[in-house]
Amino acid sequence: MPKENVRPHILIIYTGGTIGMIEDIETKVLKPFDFSHLIDNVPKIKMLNYDIENIQFNPPIDSSNMNPVHWRQIAHAIESNYDSYDGFVILHGTDTMAYTASALSFMLENLNKPVIITGSQLPIGEVRTDGEENLITALQVAAHTDSKGEAMVREVAILFENHLLRGNRSSKVSADNFNAFLSNNYPDLANIGLDINFNETVLYRTTNNRPLMVHNNMDPNVLILTLFPGITKEILQHQLSTPGIKGVVMRTFGAGNSPSDQQFTSTIAEAVNRGVVIVNVTQCSTGSVNSNLYDTGDALAKAGVISGNDITCEAAITKLMYLFGMGMSPKQVKKYMQYSICGEMTINN
Ligand code: ASP
Fold first, then answer.
1. To test the ligand 1 pocket, which listed residue (14, 15, 18, 30) has its Cβ within 8 A of the most ligand atoms?
2. Which residue lies with its CA nearest to atom 7 of ligand 1?
């Protein structure tokens, strides 16, 4: 429940995306929404009785144009307003929302307040919009407190339609459904129906009370390499020799398998020996890498590829950017890629 007698104080950070469109009453044309008049344009927000303020990207952007510079801007907005608000709602395009959610989860160390990212498939100005409901539910989630009056959600989460998901466990799974996001390898943080029922046992909790620490450096010298039957040694070699490359997320088959011929594995081993960190992530939308299951997965492990277990591709690539951005050596990056830093992967030990 929101705190009794205290109006929750929420900051909305509007970055762009489909949600930020509204139909001009006279011309019927969709145009970017002026968030300085948010409450006037979404009158239902008044019913929440919250103190809401907003800041916005100028200009708002399609999330396909997001990059680490924008992640830094969002992180900075949260850091400089951290003590003044109970929670943060980020309005964001859906296309790269899961990457931003993953990146922020690493960048915002010791986060102890809700950072809820949402957007919509239809502009907020459309009659059948999902934007209004997503925005209002995101605000409610951000204002929710537990029985001790502390923030219920203390992590970066995605709210979309009737799912509240850990940000670094989420992926966009539909280009046109209102339910566009799923977290296949981790339970929903809440059941969103008539009520919002939190699954308190799966919410992330930091183990310390240290102040928020924002990490701004994200190293872009990384790539995602998707395997396919027939991939040639030349293509593989070319990608793994990209100038400056430090880390690779390799999207493998099934439980982490790849071709096991000598040419393939020696090309991989050669890159690993040069110091390139290669992380094995499955192309399947559900399940985990298990390098010991088949010879074809074992060969990759023997070549020095590390297992990403059940991490999403979005979380794996942003985690590499974050770890190299911290100035870590390949050895250190390999070590931390096998730890769960903020609930991004399941560690079975
Ligand atoms: N292209 C848009 C974006 O990601 C799509 C959306 O918002 O749903 O910004």
1. 18
2. 93
For residue 312, name the pLDDT band (cuts at 50, 70, 90). Answer: very high
Please determine, for residue 178, whether its predicted confidence score (pLDDT) is greater than 60.
Answer: yes
What is the whole-number distance in angstroms between the Cα of residue 231 and the centre of ligand 1? Answer: 31
List residues with catalytic annotation.
Answer: 18
Helix, strand, coil content of the chain in percent (nearest 5): 35, 20, 45
The residue among 164, 190, 214 that closes a domain is: 214
Residues 6+ apart with CB under 8 A from 219: 246, 247, 320, 321, 324, 325
Q: What is the pTM of this model?
A: 0.95
Q: Which residue do the tokens 């959600």 mark?
A: 153
For ligand 1, the distance from its centroid to the CA atom of residue 194, given in whole angstroms, is 27
Contact indicator for 10, 50 with CB cutoff of 8 Å: yes
289 lies in a domain?
Answer: yes
For the CA of 120, the closest atom of ligand 1 is: 8
CATH code, domain carrying 330: 3.40.50.40
Ligand 1 centroid to residue 63 C-alpha, Å: 6
pLDDT digits (tens, 9 = 90+) for 221-260: 999 999 999 999 999 999 999 999 999 999 999 999 999 8
Which amino acids bring their CB within 6 angstroms of ligand 1?
16-18, 62-64, 93-95, 119, 121
- For residues 163 and 348, the model is more confident at 163
Which structural domain, as residue segments, surrounds residue 329? 222-337
Mean pLDDT over 108-132 rounds to 93
Question: How far is the C-alpha of 22 from the C-alpha of 131, rounded, in Å?
Answer: 10
Tell whether 132 is covered by a domain: yes
